[in-house]
């Protein structure tokens, strides 16, 4: 199937950060892009085969995990991550032309965007209600239609809706970035040498040292965990699973051996994908450890060849 015939669902309407991140990928710009109202709608459509792929936010540098996305991938769908995209985020306060700060009665945006601007909104608009919209672009549409409402979102949304930017770059912390993932029902991209693997680990029994035992499997092989987060498994209070991002690809025997060992000895493993990592190059440590493991495996095979 050519890229021109692929259908990709994303969080719309036009002008969202999700669309901006998606359009940063040259090979995807020629696909048929299908806007959806919510992240869960995107994942539902990809899982049901209504589209070929879905594109959603999964993590923000300020607010952390986008839980609605992660929970859907962990518990509700069997989708595989195909790639990740990291986008620099600049959030702006915008409103219809002629509206000033003193005129604003409500501020709307996606809850994650609102949370990234708490300090600014509290300081500059202390008496204004901050409310949730399905997306930053939906908030911009509302602000365009109802003078007195303001929106928090990207400059692209302000441009598309004819809004004025009342305050630029209002996030509470510098270096704001959001990580997006492209997901599909099948397929693992080939290893590039700079890859990431995501998996869900659910302990079979909760006992002292059980999490440490799992982490030691990675540490013993010098596999770097770039992210470790937990989510309740929704069965009983205190029951959690762990989501890990680790450097490397399932095609690397070192990574495969580690996950195999975790599954055999410690926890159920749900594989969420091996895919090209955003950014430049793999680490020297990963190369050194992979080479050492390969040499050790060759040595072991030479010993086994003498049996019999």
Quick overview:
This protein is of the alpha/beta class and 308 residues long. Helices cover 33% and strands 30% of the residues.
Characteristic terms for this protein:
single chain, 308 residues, alpha/beta, D-Maltodextrin-Binding Protein, domain 2, Alpha-Beta Plaits, 3 domains, six-stranded mixed beta sheet, five-stranded mixed beta sheet, 30% strand
By CATH, the architecture of the largest domain is named 2-Layer Sandwich
- Count, helices: 10
Enumerate the spans where pLDDT stays under 50 for 5 or more consecutive residues: none
CATH fold-level label of the largest domain: Alpha-Beta Plaits
Using DSSP, what is the number of strands?
A: 15
Average of per-residue pLDDT values: 90
Query: How widely separated are the two ends?
Result: 50 Å
The CATH H-level homologous superfamily of the largest domain: ACT domain
- Round the Cα radius of gyration to an integer and report it: 22 Å
State the CATH class of the largest domain.
Answer: Alpha Beta
Q: Which structural class do the helices and strands define?
A: alpha/beta
Q: What summary fits the major beta sheet?
A: 6 strands, mixed
Global morphology = elongated
Secondary-structure element pattern, one letter each: EHEHEEHEEEHHEHEHEEEHEEHEH
* Relative helix content: 25-40%
Count of discrete domains: 3
Beta-strand proportion: 25-35%
């Amino acid at each position: 199937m050519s890229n021109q015939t692929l259908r990709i669902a994303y969080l719309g309407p036009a002008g969202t950060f999700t669309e901006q991140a998606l359009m940063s990928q040259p090979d995807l710009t020629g696909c048929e892009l299908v806007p959806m109202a919510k992240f869960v709608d995107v994942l539902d459509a990809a899982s049901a085969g209504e589209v070929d792929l879905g594109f959603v936010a999964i993590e923000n540098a300020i607010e952390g995990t986008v839980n609605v996305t992660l929970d859907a991938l962990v518990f509700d769908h069997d989708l595989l991550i195909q790639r990740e995209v990291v986008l620099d985020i600049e959030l702006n306060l915008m409103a219809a032309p002629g509206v000033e700060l003193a005129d604003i009665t409500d501020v709307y945006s996606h809850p994650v965007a609102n949370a990234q601007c708490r300090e600014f909104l509290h300081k500059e608009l202390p008496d204004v209600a901050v409310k949730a919209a399905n997306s930053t672009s939906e908030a911009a549409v509302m602000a365009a239609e109802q003078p007195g409402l303001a929106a928090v979102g990207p400059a692209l949304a302000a441009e598309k809706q004819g809004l004025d930017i009342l305050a630029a770059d209002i996030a509470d912390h510098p270096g704001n970035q959001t990580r997006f993932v492209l997901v599909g029902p099948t397929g693992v991209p080939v290893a590039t040498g700079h890859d990431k693997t995501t998996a869900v680990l659910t302990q079979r029994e909760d006992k002292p040292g059980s999490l440490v035992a799992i982490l030691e499997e990675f540490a013993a092989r010098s596999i770097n965990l770039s992210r470790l987060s937990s989510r309740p498994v929704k069965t009983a209070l205190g029951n959690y699973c762990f989501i890990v991002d680790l450097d490397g690809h399932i095609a690397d025997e070192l990574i495969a051996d580690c996950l195999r060992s975790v599954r055999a000895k410690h926890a159920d493993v749900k594989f969420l994908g091996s895919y090209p990592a955003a950014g430049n190059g793999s680490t020297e440590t990963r190369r050194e450890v992979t080479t050492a493991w390969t040499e050790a495996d060759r040595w072991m095979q030479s010993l086994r060849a003498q049996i019999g």
